[in-house]
Design goal:
The termini are far apart. Helix content is 37%, strand content 16%. It has a 7-stranded parallel β-sheet. Strands 5-6 form a two-stranded antiparallel ribbon. A two-stranded antiparallel sheet has the order 10-11. The protein has a single domain, classed as TIM Barrel (Alpha-Beta Barrel), CATH 3.20.20.140. The protein has 9 helices and 11 strands. The relative contact order is 0.18. The longest helix is centred in the N-terminal third of the chain and has 25 residues. The protein binds zinc ion (2 copies). One zinc ion (ZN) binds next to loops.
């Protein structure tokens, strides 16, 4: 097993340098973004410029990872991604230099799908580049990419939906125990096409037990729980993760990071005021970042 980058470092509690303290944002670090090498709409340089304009002090590129070939969406970007991943990594490494000149810390990350039983594939991808950190994402159950279309969800009854949610949290716990990841991405993505059913499910004891187990696995793996504004741009129109999960995470002492999951130049730091208010409402006063493999804490600014 590979250790997740940054997971084993102590928390020095100091502001990463340079510039984090001078950001006008309540959250100066956005650790989740994509480019046109997958299904984003802007290149690496354009996303970097957008992050600078947004006032971010720390910007993490976390392009999607190639998946094992048997896991495909009906419409996919894998071919471009596999071919251009070396360009992605080289460009982000160059932007680190430019970032230094401009006072913005640029991080090279990856959003890697966890497929139970295919840890070998993940390990190989992680070894290929000097990543600062790895975001673990769940978007598939078996060969079904469950976040592709609401059409797939229309005919699922409550029992079937509840089974999908339960499996999602079992997979999340297994993902954390694999030791491959640093951050758990959008940790209730499974709700996007059925937020009402998901809310009902979260109201059950069985659901809370599974969520608790997954959150405990995040903490025990030294990982971070991502609080993401992506859900505000999706049909569920909710921040990830939902309030009952945030409440439990806080109670269990699970550390958090923030991400916009930006796919275009308008979305770095998207709705970060709302994220700051949301996290503070559950008692969070700091988030974590990973700079050069080391974790450190940043205060979450107050937003009126
Ligand atoms: Zn994702
Ligand atoms: Zn993403």
């Amino acid at each position: 097993m590979t250790s997740p980058p940054g997971a084993s470092s102590p928390l020095p509690g100091a502001l990463p340098s340079p510039g984090a303290g001078s950001s006008p944002l309540p959250i100066p670090a956005d650790l989740h973004s994509h480019t046109s090498y997958s299904h984003g709409q802007a290149g690496t340089r354009e996303m970097f410029e957008a992050a600078c304009r947004a006032g971010l002090a720390i910007f993490g590129f976390t392009e999607h990872s190639p998946r094992p070939p048997e896991f495909l969406y009906p419409r996919d970007y894998q071919e471009t991604l596999v071919r251009r991943l070396p360009d992605y990594a080289a460009e982000v490494l160059e932007l680190k230099e430019l970032g230094r000149e401009r006072g913005v810390t640029v991080l090279l990350g990856l959003e890697l799908d966890y497929f139970p039983g295919r840890e070998d594939f993940a390990e190989e991808v992680i070894r290929a580049y000097p990543f600062d950190y790895i975001i673990g994402g769940l978007h598939f159950q078996g060969r079904w990419g469950f976040d592709f279309t609401p059409d797939d969800w229309k005919d699922l009854g409550e029992e079937e939906r509840f089974a999908v949610y339960a499996r999602y949290y079992r997979d999340l716990a297994a993902m954390c125990r694999s030791g491959l990841f640093t951050i758990a991405a959008h940790p209730d993505l499974v709700k996007i096409f059925s937020p009402d059913s998901f809310r009902d499910w979260l109201g059950t004891e069985k659901a809370l037990a599974l969520v608790r187990e997954a959150l405990t696995a995040i903490r025990e793996a030294g990982m971070l729980l991502e609080v993401s504004s992506a859900g505000l741009r999706r049909s569920c129109n909710e921040i990830h993760p939902a309030p009952p999960i945030m409440r439990l995470a806080r109670e269990l002492g699970v550390p958090i990071s923030f991400g916009s999951d930006a796919h275009c130049a308008n979305t770095p730091a998207f709705a970060f005021d709302a994220l700051a208010r949301y996290a503070r409402a559950f008692g969070y006063e700091q988030s974590e970042v990973i700079v050069q493999g080391k974790r450190s804490s940043l205060p979450i600014g107050a937003v009126p």
